[in-house]
Design goal:
There is one protein chain. The protein has helices at 2-19, 34-55, 69-83, 90-105. It is mostly helical. The N and C termini lie far apart (39 Å).
């Protein structure tokens, strides 16, 4: 009896913990800025990877610019991470990437 009760509580606990696992909140597709928010989340991931690449002495990897805002914004962030020694931690790189993307895209911050 105790064992099955513990299993049930464990399942509920895991579901609750998974629901708040540090991911950005779900964004309804009817929100006008949803594409901008999702794009900036991907740019934030690129910023983090760029920080690790810079930290390990790897060369800068830029995207081919095709006239789109996506490549231009991502390359701008990559260049700045390589140029700015103040971006000295993964958290600072993520924050910089997200904030710069949101500013350049003119979108609101995503709910956390």
């Amino acid at each position: 009896m105790k064992k099955s009760l513990m299993i049930i509580f464990g399942v509920f606990f895991m579901q609750a913990a998974g629901a708040h696992g540090g991911h950005s909140g779900r964004v309804d597709d009817s929100v006008p800025d949803v594409q901008k928010i999702r794009f900036c989340e991907r740019v934030r991931d690129h910023a983090l990877q760029t920080f690790y690449n810079r930290d390990k002495g790897r060369p800068m990897k830029l995207f081919d610019e095709d006239g789109s805002d996506g490549a231009r914004i991502t390359n701008h962030i990559i260049r700045r991470i390589y140029e700015e020694p103040q971006i000295s931690s993964p958290k600072k790189a993520e924050t910089f990437g997200r904030a710069t993307c949101n500013e350049l895209m003119g979108s609101k911050l995503a709910p956390e």
